[in-house]
Amino acid sequence: MQRSTGLLLATVIGLVATGCGSGEPATPSAGGAKAVTITVACQPARTAPKERQAWDDDVATFMKAHPGVTVKSTDQQPCFDPKTFGPKLAGGQMETVFVVPVTNYNDVIGQGQALDITQYTSSIKNWNDLRADARELVTKDGKVYGVPNVLYGVGLVYNRALFTQAGLDPNNPPKTWAEVREAAKKIAGLGSDYVGYGEYSGGNTGGWHFTQAIYGRGGEVLSADNKTAAFNSPEGKAVLQTLHDMRWVDNSMGNKLLIGWESLMVAMGGGKVGMMLGAPDVVTDVVTKFKGKTADYGITALPEAKASLSGGEAYMINPKATPDEVKAGMEWIDFRFNTVGKGRFDFARGKAIGNPVGVPDNAVYGDSPTGKAIQADRVKNASLPVENYQSYVDSAASIAPKAEPMHAQEIYAVLDVPMSAVLSRKDANIDDLLKDAETKVNNLLAAKG
Amino acid sequence: MISGARGQLKDERRERGDGGVRRAPADRRRSGGRRRSPRPIHVQFRTIISPHQLNSRWGRRLYWLALVTVIVVFTLAFVLPLYWMITGAMKTPEEVAEMPPTLFPAQPTLDPFFEAWDLFDIGTLLVNTVYYALGGWLFCMVVDVTAAYALSKLRPMFGNVILGAMLATLMIPPMVILIPLYVTIVDLGLLNNPWGLWFPAAANGFNIFLLKRFFDSIPRELIEAAQIDGAGPVRVLWSVVLPVSRPILGVVSIFTIVTAFKDFVLPLLVMTESDKMTISVGLSQTAGAVTQNQVMGGLVITSIPMIIVFFIFQRHIMAGLTAGSIKG
Amino acid sequence: MGILRRNLTAYGFLCAALFCFAVFAWYPMVREFILSFQKTDLINPPEWVGLENFKGAVQDPAFGEAWLNTVEFTLLALLCGYAVPFVVALVLNELRHARAYLRFVVYLPVMLPPIVAVLLFRWFYDPGPGLFNQILDLVNLPPLAWLDSSSTALISLVIVSTWMNMGSATLIYLAALQNIPSELYEAAELDGAGVFKRIRHVTIPQTRLILLLMLMLQIVATMQVFIEPYMLTGGGPENATVSVAYLMYQFAFSQMNYGQAGALGMMLMIVLLAFAAFQLRTTREDAA
C-alpha cells in the first residue's frame, strides 16, 4: 500500500512537473527495455582522490559487467548527513541506493521510506553469511528493508605516535579510565596545542558519545520499557565527572568545544589528539578523509567495558524505484560491498593506494565463512601490523553489543546539554545537569506516548 | 510617504560635492584671518556641529582627532577581518595555527586557493550560483515589471486589492513560511530544479512596489502620445516605459542579483545535490573537513564576485538602499 | 480601449506574477495553517491531529529556551545593531573627509554572503589561535571562550550578526540625517542648545519615522536568526543559542516532523504580526 502511494505521488509529481513545462525530459530508454539508470550514494569526496578513483573504477567495472545499467554516483559528504537526509527523502531526491545509519533504521523503515526488498535478497550472494543480529535490525514484521553494510562496537582510538612521544607504551594502551586520565595528562603535557582526550559536545554528537560511554560503564540511557530515562545513575555521573575532571582538573582536553562529527575527526587527523572514543571506522576515516598518518592510529578495547554501543549502517532502496532499478541497485550493493576481494573488500588495491588495511573496521560478516575469507584477505594485504588492533578484536568477542536507545536523535539533543556543560563550565553541577536532562527526556517520552 | 530613487540621486549629487577640500569662497572668508590654520574644514551644508564651532581652534583639533579615530576603528573593524581572511589563505596550515599569529604570511603561497578550488569544487558552485542568480534576475524582472506596469498603467479591476495582497507578503518574514514553502516546492517536484528558487524569488512584493511607484511618476502624456501612434501595451512598455525607467530597473536588478547570490536557507533545502549547490551551501557542507587556510581560500574566492559588483555598482547600491525606506 | 479589453490585457500582464505569488507566497501562508494541524512526513497521506503539533512543540525540551534566546538575541542585536549604526551615522555625518572610504568599508560586509562572515568569525572565535583571543592576549587580557561558553555564545553570535548587517542600517540613517534642513540646527543653536540638546531636539525628532521603521524591520529580521546558530554553535553550549527558527529547522529536518515545525512557525508568525501591527499603529499615530 505504501508503495502504491509512493508511485502515485511520483506520477503526480511527474505530471505537475511536465505541466509546468519545467521538468526535464525523462531519460529515454534507448533501444532495449533493459536500459536503466540508478543513482548510488556515498562516492568518496574530492578530498579523498584515491578513494574516489577506486570508486569510479568500480562503477566502470560494474557497468561493463551489466550492460544497459548506468550508475550515477552522488558524493554528498558526509554520505549520511542528518541535515539533508530528511529533505532528500521527503522531496523524493533520495538516490536509488542510499545509506542509513543504525540510529535512523526505525524512522526510515517505520515511515515507509525504504523499499521492502525481501524478494531481492538473493541478489546478495553472501546474504546468509551476514551476521544474524545485523540482519535482524533491518527486518520489521518479517520483511527485509536493507542490506547491512557495516557493524562495529565502540573502542578507544588512540594516536600511537603521540603515546611514544609522551613516553607511553603504544603497545600497552590504557585499560581503565584512571589510566586514560594519566595518559591524557601526559599527552596534553607535550604542548599547549596538544589534547590528551578529545570529546564531542554538540550537534547531537555529544549525546551520542555520552551513550557510548555510559554503555561502556554498564549504565543505561532508557529503562527497559523505554518509558523513562535511566541515565541519572552512578554510571552517568561517572561519565560526566571523568570528563569534567579531565577538562578542568587535568586540563587535558583542550579548550575548544567540538560540535558535529567532523570537528573531532579533523583534530584527530591533525595528529595532536591523543585518544577518543570511537569504532574502528574512525581509524579508517581519519586516515582516508582527514589526512591522518596511516601508521599512527591504533584502537583498543573500551576501558572497563561492560557493553558497547553498536554502530553501523545499511544500504536501503528508494521506495519509488522500479523493479529494474531495484535489481540493478541490489547488484551494485552486492558487487561493491559484499564480494570477497572486490569493491571495498579489494584489500590489495586498498594497500596499493595507501589505505590503512588491517583495521578490523567491519564485523558485518562475523566469523561466517565469508567473514573468515575477508579477514584472511585483509591480513594477507595488511599494510599495518594487525596486532595493533588485536586487543580490540579480542574484546569485541566478549563485550556485548547494545543497540541505540529509542528516539535516539531527540535524546542525544537533550544529552548534548550536560556534555557541553561539563566541558564549558568549571562550576557545572553534574547532579543538577543529569536531573534536568532526566526530566526533559521523561517529558519527551511521555509526549511521544 | 517614501521617496523615490530619484530623490536619493539628488542626495548623492549633493554629497559628491563635499568630499575633498575645494574652493569655497564663503569658508575662506571665514577663516581668512588665521595664520596657523591654513586649511579650514570645508562645510558644504551644516550638520549638528556648526561650521563655526568646527573651525574654532579646539573644534578643529577635536575634529581631526575624531576623524583619525573613526578611520582607524573602521579599518580595524571592517578591513582587518578581510585582510586576515586573505592572508590566512596565504599561510600554511601550521602558520595559521601559530600563536601568536603572524601579521604577514612568512612564505606567502597561493596554493590554498588552488586547493580550495578543487576541494570545494568551487568552479561548479560558482557557475551554479551565477546561473541561479542571473536566471532568477531575468525571470524576476519579466514577472515584476509586467505586473507593476499592469498595476500602474493599465489599472485593472481589483488592482489595488492585488497590490495590497502582494505588499502584505512583506509583513511575513521569509523564515516563518520556510517550511510550508519548502513543502510546496517538494509537492511540485521542484527540488534540485532552479525553478524552485526562481519562482519564490519572483514573488517579491518590494520589487513590485518600487517599480509601480516609479511607473506611476511617468507622465501620462508620454504614453498617450505613443498610443496615438498606434502602439499597443507591449510596445508602450518596451519603448516608452522601460527606457525612462532605467534608474529603478538598475536598482531592482542589482538587489535581486545580490540577494540571490547571498541567499542561504532556501538553496540549502532546495539544491541538495552536490553538483547543483550554490556556493554558500557548498562551502557550509565541506568547510568542516578541510584545513583552515583552505577554508579561507574558499571564502576569498567566494567574496571576489560580490566585491567586484560592489566596486562597479557602488553608487547604485547605495542609492537603492535608501530608495525604499526614506521618508521624505 | 474598452474596459473589458483593458482588463484582459492587464490580467495578461499580471498572470505570471499572480501565479508566483499565489503558489509561492500566499498559498504557503495558508499551507502553514493547514500543516500545523496535520501529521505528515510528505510520503504518506497526511493525518489531521488537532492541536497535537502545538502540544508537541510546546513540550519540546528546548521550546522555552528557544524563545528566551530569541528574545535575548533580539534585544542584544537591537543594542548593537540598532543603536550602534545610528551613532556611527551621526559621527559619519559630521565628518568632512574620507566619507567615501568610510561608507564603502562599513557596507562591504553587507555585500559578502553571510556564510563568508560566519565561517570567518568561526575562525576568529577559535579559543586558541583565533584572532580575538590573540588580540586579547596582545593587550594582556585573559582569553574568552566565545562560542564555547553558554555565557558568551549568544553575544558572540550577535557580534557576527551586527558586523555583517550594520552597514545597510548605517547608510539608511546617514541618508536620513542628510535630509534634515540645516535651518533647524541653526535655529536650535541660536536658542543656545548644546550638541546633545541639538541631537535630542532636532536630530531624533527629524529622523523619528525612519528610526521607528528600522526598529520594526530589525526586530523582525533578528527574530528569524538562523544561519548563525546553524553554522557556529549547533544551538549549544547547553542550548544557549537555540533560536526559534533553528528549533523549527530541527523539528522539520532532524526529527522529520513537518507538522510540528509548521506549528512553531505559526507561533512565530503570530508574534511577529502582532508586533508589526502594534508598531504600524504607533508609526501611523506618530505620522498624523
UniProtKB/TrEMBL annotation, chain A:
Q: Which UniProt keywords are given for this protein, alphabetically ordered?
A: Sugar transport, Transport
Among InterPro entries, the record links this protein to: Bact_solute-bd_prot1, SBP
PANTHER family cross-referenced by the UniProt entry = ARABINOSE-BINDING PROTEIN-RELATED, SUGAR-BINDING LIPOPROTEIN
State what protein this is by name: Multiple sugar transport system substrate-binding protein
| Lineage of origin | Bacteria, Bacillati, Actinomycetota, Actinomycetes, Streptosporangiales
TrEMBL record, chain B:
Q: What is its main location?
A: membrane
Instruction: Give the source species.
Output: Nonomuraea jiangxiensis
> Per the UniProt entry, what is one GO biological process?
transmembrane transport
Family matches, as Gene3D superfamilies: MetI-like (1.10.3720.10)
Q: Basic and acidic residues compositional bias: what residue ranges?
A: 8-30
CDD domains cross-referenced by the UniProt entry: TM_PBP2 (cd06261)
The domain of life for this entry's organism is Bacteria
Membrane topology of this protein = Multi-pass membrane protein
Q: What is this protein called?
A: Multiple sugar transport system permease protein
- Region Disordered, residue ranges: 1-37
Q: Where is the ABC transmembrane type-1 domain?
A: 126-313
Q: Where in the cell is it found?
A: Cell membrane
**Sequence similarity:** Belongs to the binding-protein-dependent transport system permease family.
Q: Which residues cross the membrane?
A: 62-86, 130-151, 158-183, 195-215, 236-261, 295-313
Keywords annotated in UniProt: Cell membrane, Membrane, Sugar transport, Transmembrane, Transmembrane helix, Transport
The record's Pfam families line, in alphabetical order, gives: BPD_transp_1
Q: InterPro entries, per this entry?
A: MetI-like, MetI-like_sf
* Any one cellular-component term (Gene Ontology): plasma membrane
UniProtKB/TrEMBL annotation, chain C:
Bilayer topology term: Multi-pass membrane protein
Q: Does the keyword Transmembrane helix apply?
A: yes
GO biological-process terms attached to the record = transmembrane transport
PROSITE patterns, alphabetized: ABC_TM1
According to the record, the segments passing through the membrane are 7-27, 73-92, 104-125, 145-164, 209-227, 258-278
CDD domains reported in the protein's UniProt record:
TM_PBP2
What does the entry list under GO cellular component?
A: plasma membrane
InterPro entries tied to this protein: ABC_transporter_permease (IPR051393), MetI-like (IPR000515), MetI-like_sf (IPR035906)
Q: Which residues form the ABC transmembrane type-1 domain?
A: 67-279
Keyword set includes Iron-sulfur: no
What UniProt keywords apply to this chain's record, in alphabetical order? Cell membrane, Membrane, Sugar transport, Transmembrane, Transmembrane helix, Transport
Q: Where is this protein localized, as stated in its record?
A: Cell membrane
Its family remark reads: Belongs to the binding-protein-dependent transport system permease family.
Instruction: Supply the PANTHER family for this chain.
Output: ABC TRANSPORTER PERMEASE PROTEIN, DIACETYLCHITOBIOSE UPTAKE SYSTEM PERMEASE PROTEIN NGCF
Protein name according to UniProt: Multiple sugar transport system permease protein
